[in-house]
Design a protein that fits this description.
There is one protein chain. By secondary structure, the protein is mostly helical. About 75% of the residues lie in helices and about 0% in strands. The chain has 15 helices and no strands. α8 packs antiparallel against α9 and α10 runs antiparallel to α15. The chain is globular. The two termini are about 25 Å apart.
Length: about 260
């Protein structure tokens, strides 16, 4: 990413009026989680080209990351005005609306995105989360399955489906899906996701001491290395779960719901 930023810096030096260069540099800074700096680049991109719908979408993503959900929605609104056929704008607006607990409105945005691009896996997985929040469990599972069908490496859909199956008392299926999820994130070396999924594996194998101890050991190691998931401290949950020496306390279902609700996957 740093090399990419240097390339965009040179491009801007050569042509300081190039809106796309600012937009692309902002996107790279977004990937580095430098959201405030990214927004400055998007502001400049929009100043140079007020019709740049992608700059509005990207700025919305950065604002969402800073928990400025209402401002993000305004940017997505503008992007949709400029380009009503851009499914990404609807998906991202749906995500921000979901964080404001406007789940029905979020589903409307995902529906629209799917009409525009029925092959976008993320639209289905995000709609599944919104439907879960509305307690439409069967439909949520259908959406997660569809997301996986379209993109077998969509680990968010895999993880969410595993939690849903667990909550629906389909533990064996949940385990099968979770193992596939872990396989994906390990190959991608996504350490924060490995921590999240290993923690869920820890509670999912509450009736198998060998397996839950294996996952607990991995989770403890990641916590020692200060690996975090969405600024959430899993060590506190571990302390709650292992009060009896094994993860079979009354709070397991509550924790599973919290994992899905907060979107740690």
């Amino acid at each position: 990413y740093k090399e990419a930023i240097e390339d965009y810096n040179r491009a801007i030096e050569l042509d300081s009026q190039d809106s796309s260069a600012y937009n692309n540099r902002g996107a790279t800074k977004n990937a580095l989680k430098k959201y405030k700096e990214a927004i400055e680049d998007y502001d400049r991109a929009i100043e140079l080209d007020s019709q740049n719908s992608f700059a509005y979408i990207n700025r919305g993503v950065a604002k969402d990351a800073l928990k400025k959900y209402k401002e993000a929605i305004k940017d997505y609104d503008r992007a949709i005005e400029l380009d009503p056929q851009n499914s990404s704008a609807y998906i991202n607006r749906g995500v921000s609306k979901g964080k404001l607990k406007k789940y029905k409105e979020a589903i409307e945005d995902y529906d629209r995105a799917i009409k525009l691009d029925s092959q976008d896996s993320s639209a289905y997985s995000n709609r599944g989360i919104a439907k879960y929040k509305l307690e439409e469990y069967e439909e949520a599972i259908e959406d997660f399955n569809k997301a996986i069908e379209l993109d077998p490496e969509n680990f968010a859909a895999h993880g969410s489906l595993a939690v849903m199956l667990f909550l629906e008392n389909q533990k064996d299926k949940a385990r099968e899906v979770l193992e596939k999820t872990l396989e994906i994130v390990r190959l991608k070396r996504l350490e924060d996701k490995i921590l999240a999924y290993e923690f869920f594996r820890y509670i999912l194998y509450s009736d198998n001491e060998i397996e839950w101890k294996k996952s607990r050991k991995i989770v403890k190691n990641y916590i020692k290395r200060n690996i975090k998931v969405s600024n959430f401290d899993f060590s506190k949950l571990i302390e709650k779960v292992k009060k009896d020496g094994h993860p079979d306390g009354k709070n397991i279902e509550k924790i599973a719901k919290k994992i899905l609700k907060k979107g740690y996957f």
